[in-house]
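User: My notes are a mess, but here's the protein and adenosine-5'-diphosphate's SMILES. Can you give me a structure?
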Amino acid sequence: MSSGQWEDLKGVVAMANAERIVSKQKQISISEFFEKNKHFLGFDTLQRAVITAVKEAVDNSLDACEEARILPDIKVEIKRLEGDRIELICQDNGPGIPRDSVENVFGKFLLGSRFHAIRQTRGQQGIGITGVLMYSQLTTGSKTHIVSKIASDSSAVHVDLGLDTRKNRATKSNERRDVWFEDGEEVVHGLKIRTVMRAKYQRGRQSVHQYLRMTSIVNPHATIKLTVRNREGEIIDQGNWIRTTEHLPRIVEEIKPHPHGIHLGQLQRMLKEAEERKLTSFLRHNFSGVSMRAAREILQLSELDEGRTPVRVKADEAQGMIEAFQKVKLLSPPTDCLSPIEEILIKKGLSKAIDSRFASTVTRKPAVTQGQPFQIEVGLVFGGDLAGDGPIEVLRFANRVPLMYQQGGCLLTKALESVDWKQYGLDHPGGRGLPKGPAAVLIHLASTNVQFTSEAKEAVADNEEVKEEVRKAMLEVGRGLRNHLKKRTQRKKAQEKFDLINIILPEISRKSSEMLGREEPDLAPVITRIMDAVFLEDSLTWDKETKQTICTITVYNYTARARAYTLLAKWPEGEGVRFSENPRGGRKEATGLWAWRLDTLDPGQSTEIRFAVEGLDRGDWTEAEIFFRGQKEMIGATKIDEKLLDEMRKIEALAVAEAEHAKATVVGSMERLAERAEPVEAPDSAMSEDTEAATEVAAPEAVAHEGTDTEAIQTTDTDWFGLKEGEEE
Ligand SMILES: Nc1ncnc2c1ncn2[C@@H]1O[C@H](COP(=O)(O)OP(=O)(O)O)[C@@H](O)[C@H]1O
Ligand SMILES: [Mg+2]
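Assistant: No problem, the inputs look usable. Here's the predicted complex:
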């Protein structure tokens, strides 16, 4: 839920309270509020109620574990009872909740610690765990049983909780302290909830099973287990998703709001609560991206005196400030409040739930829309066990929370559909709707403020900047898929041709030599001429002993001319990930892209490049992507797009400059940033000298490119390593 919506919801609750005081006849209790708003609280149907309940509990478990830096072990058990009631048990190994807080956590609506914190959390999306207790009580009259154990206590708290809806308070019963055993072992810390509710367990795309499967994909560090039983106690559905990494998501920072994303109500509340005595300090202390200069400009534009006391600012004046916010140049908000999953972990997460042959993933750099930082990640898997006859599976996530409803109306789906997937090797009839084929696409939007289409929070609302980022990410993974498919067919065809020539040609040669009574000729040059191709073969192997991933690349020249190439390999460069062996040297072309210049390859010759990478785990890197610079097509590799490579370097240089700038001055202006960024825009001039010019068979494009200034390139429908979208191959 957006903070704006929370403001509204809190407004409604506050109004309800106020009304209760004003008029005794017209009492609106929280239970009535809940009853009236079940649809957007997620409890409107029996099928949905159980999903929402599991979601509230599991999201809390994941959040609590993440904050306490514990690798989560989560167990969900559902059992059908008499009638349309079910029993739901959710258990975690998190920090637990101290005895004195249990009542508040489960008995007070909107207690959530995160309403005001601007940072990416799962918690922002739901009504909270109290909603589950409320639903249980309203539909079955039952109490919810809680067991909570914190590490510093010697025993666990066991208690039954009900809700006093008039007073917005929990009522306790049967409280006791006792040691907590699970499967014969004492639990050191954790939380368990057992509740009974009217609900219906259902399988399929909108089910608890699917919700947990998706959750486990975007939380590769979590182990999640599901067991569903019928009335007889037989297991009718289950899942067991075991963690594929021990890396916990990094701790996200809280940030102050950015003026571009603030509503009037929010600003008024901030003004009212302000401790500063002057408006300039109020603006500088409470917002991100506001320098002294910007603060003065804002006040000038809204005709407010710098020395005015914030608490005294009136509504129309605050409105003036809101308008001024949009007119003044401000620094972008910081982006370390986001928690992307990151490329390798997306692969690991996907591998937990989907068995596929090929995976291509991308984590885009953070971007900003309306003062709110956001970041897009996409993963595409293809082949393997995936069904190929229907539309691809779309897995949508906002801040690591699965979105399971309203797929068609969601911006994330629309962005996916806007790509012409035929270009990337998927069946896409009419270029509309979802493409078909044995593929699944994961889309993750991380943001401090996800804008949904409705309070139900199931579909992301339209936003051009977000859509464009998703589209770019799609093109990037699509390109990976296309290269993979192209490589596969090219290699297959070449292999067939090679096999055929190697069988037929010697046979013809033998027969004709026999007939003519001559000696058999040397066939190698002939075969080479007929093949007329340069091949590249690559392999990635995992060395158990040394924990290295070894990449071997071999290039064969089956053409009649000498050939010269530069090879470039994409590799998962990152923190702690290094080359441990690289005897051929070469050099870095961009982050995650290494280049080696090959000596001239004579006809019939081959050459090998071998390097080893440390700091990865087994399965982290399973498919090499190789590019080349050179004239002749190379089967098994893709020609690098120099323009896009340049653009990539420019963006990197800019990011470095920005990071330096952020370090150097906390407050600054956009203009100064632009000044600093300018000189680094031209890429390192030494770069081009080494490209192709030295060899006689230089690629004409590369030579032509060498002398030209870096052009400004439209990045809307292009990407780093491939062709422009729409370009024929
Ligand atoms: N499983 C849990 N383990 C530890 N703390 C929890 C757990 N569930 C809830 N909490 C605490 O209770 C608070 C309120 O939870 P909730 O009502 O769901 O709101 P929110 O998740 O938005 O913060 C959480 O912020 C957290 O501090
Ligand atoms: Mg919650």
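The chain has four domains: 3-234, 259-327, 346-482, 527-729.
User: Great, I'll file this with my notes.
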